[in-house]
């Protein structure tokens, strides 16, 4: 019964957080800009790129999803957390039978649900544009090209979107961890973006680790490689959508999902440790 009550409290906090985030002008503005940028890729229909045009549209859409999704995940998570601190609503909420872990989990889930909506909208818009341009290209190439099969694997577009959503979850958890010991919204956002850059450049540390001899430097690089997640693992856009023979195996997708969940849960629990001793 206690577990059911805890889940109910987390669900209510997550729902309230999600509604609060959706009402923010920052979210709607960023979503409209991202959709407009993905839609602007159709400008290149006036050039005769052939199937290469579809590759450009896909890469442009994937880049837009990652860029604006990262900004939104970090900024919204930080804003939602510090709004509760500044408005003293967190104090009122925690004065009731609500544990701090439930509070943080609800905040995280609300922000992560917002990122799911953002990711789904962008992937749907991108799929619609690809479908439209693919139909025009196949019509221009003639019936033989149409008989050869579709040019785009649309399932892969959503697989990539799902993996980016998992990465946004890690980002939100990291932001929540930084916010748990930070005193200002700006500091949290800046530090979280620096951590994002470190995570994007993890492959450099791993390459350096593989070429090092045994010693404390190797242990240091190995430790940093464990502390910060490797976001390059989620950048699989080149292996998706067009390369049918080298489609991403389901086992790899499951491993990447488990990798994202482990880091997400770890950073949320670390945030709870900091937040537990914090005065509100």
In short:
With 280 residues, the protein is mainly α.
Describe the overall structure.
The chain has one domain. About 80% of the residues lie in helices and about 0% in strands. Helix 2 runs parallel beside helix 5, helix 3 packs antiparallel against helix 5 and helix 9 packs antiparallel against helix 10.
The residue fraction in helices comes out at over 70%
Overall mean pLDDT: 82
Oligomer: single chain
Shape: globular
Largest sheet: none
Structural class label: mainly alpha
Structurally, the number of domains stands at: 1
Number of helices: 11
Query: Low-confidence parts, pLDDT < 50 over ≥5 residues?
Result: none
Name the beta content range: under 5%
Blueprint of the fold:
Elements: H1 2-22, H2 25-40, H3 51-86, H4 89-95, H5 100-141, H6 143-147, H7 154-181, H8 185-200, H9 202-210, H10 216-227, H11 250-276
Helix pairs in contact: 1-5, 2-3, 2-5, 3-5, 3-7, 3-8, 5-7, 5-11, 7-8, 7-11, 9-10
What brief labels describe this structure?
single chain; 280 residues; mainly alpha; 11 helices; 0% strand; globular
């Amino acid at each position: 019964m206690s577990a059911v009550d805890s889940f109910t409290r987390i669900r209510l906090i997550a729902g309230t957080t999600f509604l609060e985030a959706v009402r923010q002008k920052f979210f709607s503005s960023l979503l409209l800009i991202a959709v407009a940028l993905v839609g602007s890729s159709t400008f290149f229909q006036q050039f005769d790129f052939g199937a290469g045009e579809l590759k450009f549209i896909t890469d442009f859409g994937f880049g837009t999803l990652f860029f604006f999704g990262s900004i939104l995940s970090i900024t919204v998570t930080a804003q939602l957390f510090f709004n509760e601190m500044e408005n003293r609503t967190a104090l009122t909420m925690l004065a009731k039978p609500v544990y701090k872990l439930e509070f943080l989990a609800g905040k995280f889930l609300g922000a992560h649900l917002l990122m799911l909506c953002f990711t789904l909208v962008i992937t749907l818009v991108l799929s619609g544009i690809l479908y439209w341009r693919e139909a025009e290209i196949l019509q221009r190439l003639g019936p033989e090209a149409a008989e050869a099969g579709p040019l785009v694997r649309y399932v892969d577009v959503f697989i990539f979107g799902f993996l980016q959503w998992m990465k946004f979850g890690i980002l939100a958890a990291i932001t929540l961890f930084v916010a748990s010991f930070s005193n200002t919204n700006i500091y949290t956002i800046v530090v979280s973006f620096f951590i994002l850059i470190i995570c994007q450049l993890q492959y450099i540390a791993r390459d350096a680790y593989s070429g090092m001899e045994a010693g404390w430097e190797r242990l240091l690089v190995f430790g940093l490689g464990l502390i910060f997640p490797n976001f390059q693992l989620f950048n699989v856009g080149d292996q998706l959508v067009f390369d049918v023979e080298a489609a991403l195996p389901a086992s790899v997708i499951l491993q990447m999902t488990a990798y994202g969940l482990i880091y997400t849960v770890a950073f949320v629990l670390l945030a709870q440790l900091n937040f537990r001793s914090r005065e509100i």
